[in-house]
Structures are given as structure tokens and as C-alpha cells.
Sequence to fold (125 residues):
Amino acid sequence: MRRMKLETIQNHVMKTFVSRALRKHAGKMIRRAEEGRLSVVTSKGEPVFVAVPMHAGVLPEEVVTALAMRLFDEERVSLGMAARMAGLSVGEMMEVLGRHGIAVIRTGTDELQRSLLDFGVTKPG
Fold:
């Protein structure tokens, strides 16, 4: 197994982890992120992805907001969590999502049918 190496990038120490050791070092990567440090995972000597801390100052604001929007759109996080990730209020996050054409209110089929019945609209057929 390849030894881990250290690289310095923009005043952050970036630890390199071999992908085969990822499970073994997941906790270490999380602690490093909590400390504001980056980690890169390699496979066959090539970088595969970078684990980047989410706190302010490390990632450009646009990247964090784009990630929050994507996770919300994929229904992986709530509106409140997306807003918190982006450093915005819920209202501000709703505006950002709207500007990008991402629906904030998502009504399921059952809920929509109940609403239609409440308005006296019956199902065709």
C-alpha cells in the first residue's frame, strides 16, 4: 500500500489518502475537515476527489450555495438544511432556488389529489 504524503496548498495542509484505505481513514478525514483542512483521495496514484471542509472561508460562497441547491433539488436535504449550508435565511434560500428554477414546494400525488378534492374537483373517469 502506498504511504500517505503531505502537500501544502494555500496555507492548508492537504493529506493524501489511498482509496483502498478510505474506510479505514474516514474518521480521520472528518476530523481534518472539522479542523478546516483538506484531504485528497487517490486511486492508482491519480487524484479522484477532494474532501473539502464546508465552513466559511475554505470554499467560495458560490460553490457552497450550488451544492446546497443541488442537494435540495435531489431531496437529500431539507430547505432549512440547504439554507444553513449556504449561510442564508430560509427566505433567501427560497429566492435563490426560485431564480434557478428549482421548485420549493413539492406536492406529491396523494397530497395533490386531497387538495383537489378539498376544492371540489373530482378525479376524471
Observations:
- Residues 18 and 32 are 16 Å apart (CA to CA).
- The beta strands are 6-9, 12-18, 39-43, 46-51.
- The helical segments are 22-34, 61-73, 79-86, 90-99, 109-118.
- The longest strand covers residues 12-18.
